[in-house]
Write a structure and sequence with these properties.
By secondary structure, this protein is of the alpha/beta class. Helix content is 38%, strand content 21%. It has a domain of 156 residues: Alpha-D-Glucose-1,6-Bisphosphate, Chain A, domain 4. The chain is built from 16 helices and 19 strands. Strands 3-2-1-4-5-6-11 form a 7-stranded parallel β-sheet, sandwiched between helices. The termini are far apart.
Length: 485
């Protein structure tokens, strides 16, 4: 049984590739910064899975994690966490990985890169992906590179941009890139290429373009999305002076993605992204989905709440703030619940997204819009699943920083704030069919602005937090009643 290493297992592609490799009979070693982020995945208990805490900036750690591995997937891309410095960060991480792979005796590296024409006009985003390919192979380990354009799949960044733009804008003002030819590929086809490349020795040390069956301009892909969403034909007005930076702010306002992530993606859209050779079809034949089939499959997953990974799951989860010392504001409230702890926990885990926040949703929406205007995520990220949550997952403008079944949900604020904020729900059983729900909001202000912020929102806490507690209690008691019926 071969051991295969994966970096980026907490991300969009890595989180889907790992269970496929396990199902294919490989022993898989996930090299991750935060092992806890994989704890709640349905495949986390697989007997052939190892999860190792590894700092990708530490070559010694990496070499130890790669020891004994036949091959290694490099699925790391720092665009989301590094902002404008993502290209240098990508280059550094790839070099550390290449050196560590050489030390560990890894036979081959597999990389998922970006499709696009070569030359001086290549966007910084795609040029960075090319440089990563070069750096990964610079120490002598053979590298297999699969270059893809837009990946159509539930939860992918490109797919979410496309879906939200089409869904929310009957008439779109766009840059010239809507006429750029693109050859999208379904995420299931990407994953099959990655898995089967391991079984195909001829792919070792080679670079392949991978794409679907159609080459279309983005404006046609938008119209197909509208059709699959059951919407009317979208109006598209092209403004040639719209730069990638301006486009990124526009994407930020309309979709869940921040402008820091949208900017390199928008820059990359100016380049034609079309396969220049079809060699991969001979070595790894498979049924390739059309653009319409890909979008249909992705939307079906979204509608069925069957999205295993999404773009917002990757990236660094900041450490806990130091709550000791200095000014610390605390708002604690409790309420008795005539339902078991399991029902109360289910009710707590439904907060946010389309479900809302149980009370004063209009206040939450206003706060989300204000956050959006100052560059924060707002409420647009929603949630991956209507009830399930896992550690490190994004939830509106929060992120899950602590979760324990039937006991605790802890959310760390990611909205723009003059300080650090935490919202915590604790459930304490008091009898077989009753419990107490405690809600604690913590805020550590930064400077006078932080103090002013706390006192300005304090009057609204009664409506928001008390209403939320009563709403959670009502939902928990309703769930308990349904279970007894």
């Amino acid at each position: 049984m071969k051991t295969i290493a994966i970096t980026g297992a907490t991300g969009y592609i890595g989180g889907r590739l790992t269970p496929l490799l396990l199902d294919s009979g490989y022993r898989v070693r996930c090299l991750v910064r935060t092992p806890r982020k994989l704890r709640d995945r349905h495949w986390s208990g697989h007997p052939n899975l190892e999860v190792c805490a590894v700092d990708l900036n530490n070559e010694g750690d990496l070499a130890a994690g790669l020891a004994g591995c036949e091959a290694a997937f490099y699925l790391v891309h720092s665009m989301m966490s590094a902002g404008d410095g993502y290209a240098k960060q990508d280059n550094d991480l790839a070099l550390h990985f290449a050196r560590a792979a050489t030390q560990a005796g890894v036979a081959r590296i597999l990389d998922l890169g970006g499709l696009g024409e070569t030359g001086p006009d290549l966007s910084e985003h795609l040029a960075s992906r090319r440089e990563v390919e070069h750096v990964l192979g610079s120490t002598g380990v053979p590298v297999t590179v699969l270059r893809a354009a837009m990946i159509i799949g539930s939860g992918s960044a490109s797919f979410e941009i496309l879906r939200y733009l089409v869904e929310r804008l009957p008439v779109m003002v766009t840059p010239r890139w809507v006429s750029t030819p693109c050859q999208p590929i379904a995420v299931r086809n990407v994953l099959e290429y990655l898995v089967r490349a391991l079984e195909t020795p001829e792919t070792t040390g080679q670079v392949f373009d991978i794409g679907g069956t159609e080459i279309l301009p983005y404006r046609e892909i938008m119209q197909i999305m509208a059709s699959e969403l059951g919407l009317k034909h979208r109006g598209i007005v092209v403004l040639p002076f719209l730069t990638p930076r301006l486009s990124s702010y526009w994407i930020h306002l309309v979709t869940p993605l921040s402008h820091q992530i949208a900017k390199p993606l928008a820059e990359g859209l100016r380049n034609p992204v079309v396969c220049r050779d079809q060699r991969i079809l001979t070595l790894i034949p498979q049924h390739l989905l059309t653009v319409r089939e890909s979008i249909h499959a992705a939307l079906a997953r979204v509608a069925g709440h069957e999205v295993p990974t999404n773009w917002s799951m990757a990236g660094r989860l900041p450490g806990d703030p130091d709550w000791a010392g200095g000014t610390l504001f605390r708002d604690a409230r409790t309420i008795p619940v005539k339902a078991p702890a399991s029902a109360a926990f289910r009710a707590v885990c439904q907060v946010g997204g389309e479900h809302g926040w149980y009370a004063a949703d209009w206040m939450w929406r206003i706060r989300g819009w204000l956050d959006l205007l100052v560059g924060g995520p707002g409420l647009r990220r929603g949630r991956r699943h209507p009830e399930e949550l896992c550690y490190g997952e994004a939830l509106d403008f929060w992120r899950v920083s602590g979760i324990a079944k039937d006991q605790l949900l802890q959310l760390r604020a990611e909205m723009k704030l003059p300080g650090e904020a935490l919202l915590e729900f604790r459930i304490v059983p008091t009898a077989d069919d009753r419990c107490t729900l405690e809600q604690v909001a913590l805020f550590k202000p930064k400077g006078l602005l932080g103090l002013a912020y706390w006192y300005s929102v304090l009057p609204f806490h009664h409506f928001v937090f008390d209403g939320m507690l009563r709403g959670i209690r009502a939902e928990a008691e309703k769930l308990a009643g349904q279970a007894r019926a």
